[in-house]
């Protein structure tokens, strides 16, 4: 996706930095009937430019006309009316005209002490305009002058206007790379605003700005947490449904989208445009821009046709209100272009890309990021059409432009170079040896960047390049390189989160490592400030910008981090940098009669690397679209929840596509299969595939299957063996009673939970688990006792089984749920929703966690390539393996599978073998209950290993 379009979405609230321009004093000569002027001014103060730009400008003109009717031309009231017009022009982007007006009125307002507040607001407007024009030093000086003026008269100032100016000063500091100063002044503004009565609604924008400041500095997780906290606090202060809350939701959604969490982003973005449209009485260009952002999330989630439908509705609104060549209109067309490419409409996409490039070249200055972005998009469109000449020319131009704008190791330049190599590989326009040599050097630079700051926005931007290089290496026979790149391509934000938490935990126990981590963090903060300056120049290029000097500072910073890392012992360094497995290590983890296979989504193709005791094999699966279609057919049957809907032809065709003849032969004598798969394959149990194409003959019949979250290193011990002597189990939560208790927290959530069906087999299942374990160390927390507090208090020793028999809830299932959760009973300060972040903070070193809950591994997709947030949370808490379901599962089937699995483990089977035996038992009815043979019912459970 185009780099610029999401950055603009994240900056949405920053573009609306508030300017309070109401007058603070009025002439009281008793000779003028100014009631209409007062009413017009009040309307103007209450209006917002985004909601109706034309109406906002018309109201400003009407206010000025009324002031001129009442007062002489040199009266401060006329100057104030002109200031309103200048503001309207500024919000419409006519900055030069606006600045001329503001400069004209400032002396007239300053001359009358009664209009001191209006004079301050005029200076604030001037600072806003100067910032927009890139004259940041002058804007900063004005804002600092204003703050000094306010603070000189602490008892006589308008506190709301003072808070607004603090927020504006924060924005100026950010433009100068002074992040700490920006955050400090922004915090002052927010804290002051929350003490006022009424609390100004602008505090929502200031909190939204704060999330942008943190995100821009690379502090992504902190930005997300800040936005989530602000939604709760500010929603309480100004009302959860206040239109200004849309800024917070939109920014949080944009950041979640930027870090490849589209499923989490969609509920936030939807909330943003719904609030905006409710306040406006229907769609406007602001809500339409949010709908474009929603379309971007749909694309990331693989729902390109839905994205196009959203864009068809949103783009005409933006065109009508802002023009077809406005920034927002162009972003909408960029988004449509990506959806067209993903759906194979290259013939329509390439001319659109050409047109967008022409517009941007005509409108934007040399050095602007979007000129290079437009060439990226043209290269991608031409690539889809096999128009290699156009694709190579556009990609080469993008590299050349970025080479003049960026340091050599900048992620955007590296990704552009990877795209050029991809085109040259397909076009055969360079010798294969040259391609591989350059690709290796490029890959080294990419991985060095990613290991500097895992989970950062910059590391996230590089992800497409790993896929392209993995494909190039595989096509050119560089198998080792392809396997290494494949592992990087499969990594997700969840993997980075796991690694970051692991290093933070280690730092609490190892003082020397803690000191290194702290120093490294300081260096990264400094680096993020330098990168923020560079990014700012890409959107507003300055001919005087010292790129060479900034590059030297970045190089020095990089070397300082590298020196720190090099001084660490190998075990500690491994906590800070990701080192993929070698092909030899991958093969070495394979025991006799077992196989490991890694499937990685490379975009239009998939790369498979397989290891058995007979050797290794790597192959490209070029027809990724066909695989996606087969997965969709199987998921359609599953989502229909009817046994008769299962599509055996799709299950057979998918197996044949994933395991072509040579690979199938390698699996013939396999008894145990470990799968690592991302993308759409992350949400589909492999046991339901049909290797022989015969009804009733599934892959699970041939072998035990488990999931790995990463490629193993060397010999891998079989998990799930040894004695288990403790069960901790929670369940039997009734939706009706729980919903009633939650009503005080969330009426919408409570209503949804009240409607959840009861799980009558839950208590029976947990009792049967205790019986199957056959020990006296059982802690059953049923019904009212199934609370978060009781889980925190429970002892979960290593080697134990931790089981949940309750509902699993997915993000967006009801208002306010932005993480997956297990439903428990609310009690005290606990809300009854056990989320991944709460799980990860616990110590739960269970040998096996059983999530006998609907959707506990659900919503796997682009943002959850390998495992869900719930499963991730338990790995963070120390669990060895997790058994979870991919879709809603019948509670009687869940009981039979979980009980039979534990019984098998008690008898000495590995957990994977025990789960396989449990599935076969349920299918045959060997446990004395009904025979259930449809994969829709028995297949959802899979075993995950860390």
From TrEMBL:
Signal peptide span: 1-27
Keyword terms: Repeat, Signal, TPR repeat
**Per its UniProt record, what Pfam families does this chain match?**
CHAT (PF12770), TPR_10 (PF13374), TPR_12 (PF13424)
The source's superkingdom equals Bacteria
Q: Which residues form the CHAT domain?
A: 650-942
Q: Which Gene3D superfamilies match?
A: Tetratricopeptide repeat domain
| Name of the molecule in the record | Tetratricopeptide repeat protein
Q: Which organism is it from?
A: Hephaestia caeni
